[in-house]
């Protein structure tokens, strides 16, 4: 594990300076990110004392199918770590957000690193709000929350990170062995939109229906008038339907 004071984005750092193939687990933590990135080209804002931002490189078997459910696995691991610290009411918003009381507490950005003759890898980036300044709240984006608001007795940062990494690596080991199917039930128990009307916006398309869960690959299942539609993570955005 490497801890640095500042960088643009921990995901970008790992993408640009891939550690050697034999380095099975590689984690980069930054006290401050100046160009944090979120899904769909969004910015991820963080504050030096107010956020925990890190990325973990995870290698998967050459020739294995693209690990589609990874951001769900990471979300579940993060949820489990925070639940063990006493945080209740965590919900997972497919594919990459962790919510408490409907407000975003953490986000996950998974990016694949092409093999180029090496073992293929994924970078799993996690941004967790610890103590946000008031200007961080953007109600029109559903609102944000921080860990300090949810559990006032926050453990020290290093302890929190260690607890998250423990859960993350345990979940990744199971995922590597048995696939997302082994974690699917646990993810669905925390599904923020279970049996609720949803609207999925893609590039030039829109799906409206009831969210019935996720499948063995981590794809979202939406029951529409035309039958059940499988939505792959890609460039889509999920919202509650009125
Ligand atoms: O909400 C999202 O769309 C995902 C946010 C992911 C943010 C984390 S912070 C650590 C890592 N480095 C980045 O630039 N992004 C991820």
TrEMBL record:
Its EC number is 6.3.4.15. The keyword Nucleotide-binding applies. InterPro entries: aa-tRNA-synth_II/BPL/LPL, Biotin_CoA_COase_ligase, BPL_C, BPL_LPL_catalytic, Transcriptional_repressor_C. It is an enzyme of class 6 (ligase). GO terms for cellular component: cytoplasm. GO terms for molecular function: ATP binding; biotin--[biotin carboxyl-carrier protein] ligase activity. Keywords: ATP-binding, Biotin, Ligase, Nucleotide-binding. It catalyses: biotin + L-lysyl-[protein] + ATP = N(6)-biotinyl-L-lysyl-[protein] + AMP + diphosphate + H(+). This is biotin--[biotin carboxyl-carrier protein] ligase.
């Amino acid at each position: 594990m490497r801890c640095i004071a500042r960088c643009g984005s921990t995901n970008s750092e790992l993408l640009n300076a891939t550690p050697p193939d034999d380095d099975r687990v590689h984690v980069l933590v930054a006290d401050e990110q100046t160009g944090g990135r979120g899904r769909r080209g969004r910015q991820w804002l963080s504050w030096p004392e107010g956020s925990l931002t890190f990325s973990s490189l995870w290698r998967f078997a050459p020739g294995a199918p693209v690990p589609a459910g990874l951001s769900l696995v990471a979300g579940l691991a993060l949820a489990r770590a925070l639940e063990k610290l006493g945080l209740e009411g965590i919900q997972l918003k497919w594919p990459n957000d962790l919510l408490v009381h409907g407000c975003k507490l953490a986000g996950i950005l998974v990016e694949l690193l092409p093999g180029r003759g090496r073992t293929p890898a994924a970078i799993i980036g996690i941004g967790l709000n610890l103590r946000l300044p008031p200007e961080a709240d953007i109600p029109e984006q559903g609102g944000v929350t921080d860990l300090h608001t949810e559990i006032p007795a926050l453990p020290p940062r290093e302890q929190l990170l260690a607890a998250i990494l423990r859960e993350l690596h345990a979940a990744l080991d199971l995922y590597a062995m048995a696939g997302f199917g082994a974690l699917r039930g646990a993810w669905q128990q925390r599904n923020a939109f279970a049996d609720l009307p949803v609207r999925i916006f893609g590039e030039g398309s829109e799906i409206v229906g009831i969210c019935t869960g996720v499948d063995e690959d981590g794809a979202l299942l939406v029951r529409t008038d035309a039958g059940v539609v499988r939505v792959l993570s890609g460039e889509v955005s999920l919202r509650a339907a009125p």
